[in-house]
Amino acid sequence: MSAKLRVGILSFAHLHADGYINNLRMNPLVEFIGFSDDDSARGVEVAHKYGARYFSSHEALIEDRPDAVVVCSENSRHLPLVVMAAHAGIHILCEKPLATTVEDARTMVDICQRAGVVLMTAFPMRFNAPAIEVKRALTDGRVGQIIACTATNQGECPYYHRSWFVDPLLAGGGAMADHIVHAADLLRWYLGSEVTRVYAQSNHILYAREAPEVETGGLVSLDFANGVFATIDCSWSKPPYYPTWGGLMMDVIGGAGVVNLNAFKQMLTVYTASTGRPRWDFWGSDADQWMINEFIAAIIEQRNPTVTGIDGLKAVEIVAAAYRSVASGQPEYVAAG
Amino acid sequence: MRIGIVGTGFMGRTHAAAWKNTPATLVGVHTLDPVGKEAFIGDFGSQAFDSLDELIDQVDVVDICTPTYLHMGHVITAARAGKHIICEKPIARTLEQGREMIRICREAGVRLLIAHVVRFFPEYARAKEIVENGDIGQVAVIRLSRCGFKPAANVPDSWFHDPEKSGGMMLDLMIHDFDYARWVSGEVDSVFARSAAGINADAPLDHGFAILRHRNGAITHIEGSWAYPPPLFRTALEIAGSKGLIEHPAGSSNAVEMHLSVKDGVVPSTGLPRSPLILDPYTLEMQHFYRVLTEGVTPRVTAEDGLAALAIALAASESARTGSVIQLGGSH
Q: Which among A268, B83, B144, B252 is least surrounded, fewest beta carbons within 10 Å?
């Protein structure tokens, strides 16, 4: 066995970074070298909490010559970090959404391609065990030809975890920027087809105080090239006192039957005096772990990961079309190429 | 109060059973279906009338449970005879028919009540009440789902399967939730919809959805299906507001689920999971209509509500066919 892959995390802006530290440490092929963060107070705190090395600048982490990085900055700040890493020949797993504009996403894909580094988009739903079970049922034809899909990726407003999620410049928008991509990517994976046309309606009634500048409710319709139509409810419609953060559900309607997926149903209901209300505690398989494992395996085996930067780009194109539809009030085509 | 039912299909029989739980008297029934007639009289008593006029002559209220495309003719006949009318949903096959029915009933001075029974399902009525109380603040996103199988799938020439007669799945099934969404969150400005039948009129199974924008800013997702395998039939309700959330996921009200063991190699028919009620929604509906007609109670659902729901359903059908967003005018 050769030396372990040296992996770092660029930025702790995204709350998923917490989990990724553990996931990286759990992978026997990885040496976790530490993380960088613009916020030095947060950096010191995280370093202490996880016993991890804190690099006071992203450049400093890059100069430590990691083999790979996980980019967890604010959505609009993925691009400079991905470019920096790609130029240094470092493989990249980037948080979703890949970017806040189609142009940024395409630039990231192109630069990584030219640099010959892996660019993987963090779409953990592809590694969610119930979601994989559905993919198998669809692939072996048990459900028949697919007619339509109804998906929801609803959640609480992430404002209370990180305030930048409701900043239109940093997040690229609100609930639509945050919650369309997971379900959209799952649909593309299930259907093996691309979205041609998008219609979306949004509003700003939920969490109006916490998120004054971005949409908090959204309903999106997608037409796929293969004739299947689907909807995604991306609303931040779970209140902060809901038993869990939210969830992802999908109904797939086929000619020979229907599949109902509740990707996070593997929960214990816990009643505790400390919260004063029921809490759902997830006990299913950790999709993030298998996503990290796939990233590492793709680098070692010198192949493309099962989820790529292109997948991230396609999802960003769908989000962009949804915003155009909200602005025009009409269905919008996902621009080609 | 004497009731006459027109039509002995599933709804005619359901209404007959419901009327039995009211002080009203079921006097008779009119149908062109000899088999349905015999079964109806066998199960509910009363008298069969071969002529609609004879039945109307003997009653105070005519309860019209005929196929959608026949509503207008039956309603106008009853109205001209000066009888109050209860009519199954949708009010009519077209807006022109619906408007004509309302006009003629108004001229004749008779009530026209549309049987939008979902307003009488306790979980739906309770959710509306919670919204009215302000418990969840301003309504933002509504999700309503009604998924089952195609009605009368084994009847080759059933009127359900002819969109000219039934209006298809959106008019027959999704109209329940179009009405409910409007009841909860008010008038609808725009409709966008997709459906299997909208894309291909010959699609063997129909499934569809509509996204509504309400005048008050709320948005609603309505899903309807005639593509679920029998005997599955599931409804779901979710209303998210600025101060709270109401959830009623599919299957969550199955208060009784039966699992029977195989006997002598015969698998028992499982039967649908049930949510038993002492008074079923149809009984609650007819008891309410009884009080509307005898005590002057304000009706929970009016003919105008029925017409507005039809307007949304027709807009959704058109959108599903054309792929365009349909704007709804203020008045129907």
A: A268
| Same domain (yes/no): A243, A144 | yes
Contact A233 B229 (CB under 8 A): no
Tokens of A331: 């269905």
Q: Which structural domain range is residue A242 located in?
A: 125-285+316-333
Strands B188-195 and B61-64: unpaired
Q: Does A105 share its domain with A132?
A: no
Q: Which residues of A touch B250 (CB under 8 A)?
A: 260
- How much is the average pLDDT of B52-60? 97
Condensed to tens digits (0 to 9), the pLDDT of residues B126-152 reads 999 999 999 999 999 999 999 999 888
The yes-or-no verdict on residue B251 having pLDDT over 90 is no
CATH of the domain at A295: 3.40.50.720
pLDDT number for residue A336: 56
Rounded Cα gap, residues A285 and A182, in angstroms? 18
What number of other Cβ atoms are within 10 A of residue A215's Cβ?
Answer: 26
SS3 sequence, A247-275? EEEEEEEECCEEEEEECCCCEEEEECCCC
Chain B residues 160-219 within an 8 A CB cutoff of chain A:
190, 192, 194, 196, 199, 203-205, 207-209, 211, 213, 217-219
Give A123 to chain B, closest Cα distance, Å.
Answer: 25
Minimum-distance CB partner of A205 among B140, B205, B211: B140
| CA dist., res. B299 & res. B310, Å (int) | 18
**B274 by DSSP, 3-state: which?**
strand
Closest alpha carbon within chain A to B247 = A238
Token pair belonging to B58: 């003997």
- Please name the amino acid found at residue A151: A
Residue A3 confidence (pLDDT): 83
B148 touches chain A (CB under 8 A): no
pLDDT at A2 over 80: no
* A242, two tokens: 């809901």
Q: How many domains does chain A have?
A: 2
Mutate to test the interface with B, among A206, A262, A333 (most CBs of B within 10 A): A206
Task: Report the chain B residue with the minimal C-alpha distance to residue A232.
Answer: B221
The phi, psi pair for A8, rounded to 5°, reads: -125, 170
Cβ of B196 and A233 within 8 Å? no
Q: What are phi and psi of B180, to 5 degrees?
A: -65, -45
Indicate if A241 and A321 belong to the same structural domain. Answer: yes
A141 and A55, same structural domain? Answer: no
Among B114, B116, B138, which residue's Cα sits nearest to residue B125?
B116
Report CA B161 to chain centroid distance, whole Å.
Answer: 17
Strand boundaries in A67-212, DSSP class E? 68-71, 91-94, 119-121, 146-155, 195-203
Strands A195-203 and A332-333: antiparallel
Locate tokens 């010198």: which residue?
A: A302
Which CATH architecture group holds B2-115?
Answer: 3-Layer(aba) Sandwich (3.40)
**Joined tokens for residue B150:** 């195609």
CA distance A128 to A125: 5
